[in-house]
Each structure stands twice: as C-alpha cells, then as structure tokens.
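Possible regression after last week's pipeline update?

I re-ran a chain I had predicted before the update to compare outputs. Posting the input and the new output here so someone can diff against the archived version. Not blocking, just want to make sure nothing changed silently.
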Amino acid sequence: MISLQVENLSKRYVKRTILDQLSFTHNEGVLGISGANGSGKSTLLKCICYLAKPTKGSFNWIESNRHLERAEVKPRIGLAAPYINVYAELTAEENIRFIANISKLTEYDQRLDQLIDTMDIRPFAGQEFGSLSTGQKQRVKLAVSLIREPDILVLDEPGSNLDAKGHSLVEHIVEEAKNSNKCVIIASNDPKEMDLCDQIISL
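New output (post-update):
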C-alpha cells in the first residue's frame, strides 16, 4: 500500500495562512481530514494531489520504502471534489469515457458499464452534464475518480448533495477501496463520513 508522509506543511494565500506546519503520517486504512468549512481541508488535498504548491514544508508518497516521484503518483490518484469539473457539454457517459481515453486505458468498456450501473448513472447517462442535478453531477464525479481504478482515492466532501442511497454508495466505495488495500483519504465535516475512517486529522 502507498503511504503518505507530511512534514511541516504550510500554505499561505496573500495575507491568510490556511495550513500552518502540519505534520502527520498515514500508513494504512482510511485517513479522514476533518474540520469546519474554511479550515483548510480542500487546500491540504490540493497540495497532496499536486494541484497547489505548499508555501513551506513537504509531503511524500511512499511505496515499498521508496519515495515516489510526482510523475509516478499523479496517474495513480483518483480525485472527486467540488472544484474538479468535467465538461458541461458532454453527456455523463461521455465525460467518464473521455477520462478513460486521455488516461490511455484499454478495454475499459466493461469497467465503464459497471461504474454506470453501480453509481446509478444509467437513467441519465445520455444527458449533458451541465443539465444534471447537483446529486447526479456528484455521482458522475465519483465515477470519473474511479474509472482508472486508482491506488490513491481522494474524496473531498464525497456525500455532498447525495441522497441516502448516495451516501450508502460512498460507504461502499470506501469499503471496497480499503479492502483492496488502496490508500483512501476523505475530507469532510460529516460525522458519518468520518466514521468510515481509521485515522483522523483535525484541522
């Protein structure tokens, strides 16, 4: 399993410090990042997913006692977050297929069909993403994060805008990834989502 080591990580925007010398190590199970809105949960995820550069400090992804390079890690990350957008003019299915294509996945049709059914996307698979409800969009974003079968699954507020069935689906996704010995990180202020975690970092 890939582990994560964060050392004295800080992130500052203009005059506001979002993260201040944060350090922790995550070796196994599901890592939860908790905190109120604005506490820095999303900022931390952006940093460790290479979407934002820390102001100070460092982080390392480690596998078999070897620090992985950025180019090795990025293709192995599946990220679902409010700030990750897909194409409004493409249908739900086309968006998932597009990610599979640019990721150079082969023979993914069975995987795509399975995801569409598991995520209950089939009823609106042919509709443009921009026309979907917020809950339907969240299901598509979750499917997009899973199409590459990532070794590192990062979920930022995964249950956002989902109904009870959708929340159960998130639980299933997390449990399945954990049982497959993948690294799973959840950022949320939902106590039920934090209950899925083995280790929790409070911001």
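Follow-up from reviewer: compared with the archived run. The two ends are 25 Å apart (CA to CA). Marking as no regression found.
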